[in-house]
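Sample A.
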Amino acid sequence: MDLPRIVLLFGYSGLVPFFVGPAWLALSPGTAPQWIDAAWLAYNAMIASFMAGTFWGFALPASMGPNGQLGLLISVVLMLMSWLALLLPFGPALALLALVFLLLLAADFWRERVLDTIGGYFALRSGLTVGVLVAMAWRYALSA
């Protein structure tokens, strides 16, 4: 099964806010408001937590078995890591969220082999994760 076009549209449009903050700071740093990094980091954490929630949704139907229970645990841990990132200073928060996105991708790789799968979903997740990590690296480079 291929993913509906609307899923691809919403998925890739969700990358736009990841690039707005770094682009604003790169192209017109003098006009960037003080709150830009806090808002940008909050969006990163919200999306990471949302993705952990989608992982929960994939694991839920198998929750009576050990693989499903492991999937639920992975989801909760990644969600808590996303929240914890918001309590840290900008640099460590950015590093922790990058780790969460990498772990989410690894978890989806595991899920593809152990739990139910949807055709095209892992390819979409991989592409979106690369986009997220590029935006995070760009923002990190701007602060170095």
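Sample B, a different protein:
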Amino acid sequence: MTTELDTLATALYVRVDDLLKSAPELAPWRPRVGIAPTLSDAELVTLAVLSALLGFHRERRWLRYAHAELHGMFPYLPQQSGYGKRLRKSVALVMAVIRVLACDTSLWSDDVWVADSTPVECGRSVETARRSRLAGWAEYGYCASHSRYFWGLRLHLVCTLGGLPVLFALSGAKADERQVLLDMLATAPRVPAEHPDQTIIADRQYYGRAFERELAEDGMRLLRPARAGEAERAGAHLFKPLRQVIESINQTLKGQLDLERHGGRTPAGVIIRIFIKILALTTAIWHNDHTGQPIKRSLILYDH
């Protein structure tokens, strides 16, 4: 591991450990009487983030690597089954760490957000779609940006222009992006409350008078390209360059963090694997921000 990655891992471990000391209710539930886990929850989260940054898609391969290369940093490492079970129980903790790290960056106060969704493929064969335990949640959808059909889910993101994830959600491939955005805002009411007079830049599918009215009630101003038959809307000159921003953020998740190579076979497995990748991106931005790196979203220092 590089010195930079070692420093990031140490900083993340300390931050998560301090968070769990101040808010122990965030830790996964376990009986009061029993054997305490040898690998702490802070170590578990740090280990999972390192696997995402280093590009490991399979838990067995990652743990073999960790046993060989990271024994000094993690004196105890569980087997694959125990590691997977503990990760799936840590979803609430991972989401809390994402929010805490995001709030601890200079990007959190940005007054412009970009909103979009991107496909998360979960299978390709017809037999997989029939037999998968994701069937019923995962479904067939179409990605207009890449002109392709897929079977799986959609990751909905609201990010700052610097790529910091502010809100995120997983839905079926055919879910209405406008409704998902409203649901994300409603689920985290403190986020819009902390960002009055916020501007959201989105694609043309985020349309509708009722939709824009609901956003306005939350103090959000929507900028989007005009649809066919509409008059030109305010901020039209911004859409093309800022559209590239959200595509670049999606490419960071897909090209460097292998978003679609998650390997999840159950809803719980997919959720934690996707959220770990979002946490890995947030951690890199948080660390870059605190160490004065010029490009906050860069993963170059940590991906090898």
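Observation for Sample B: The chain has a mean pLDDT of 90.
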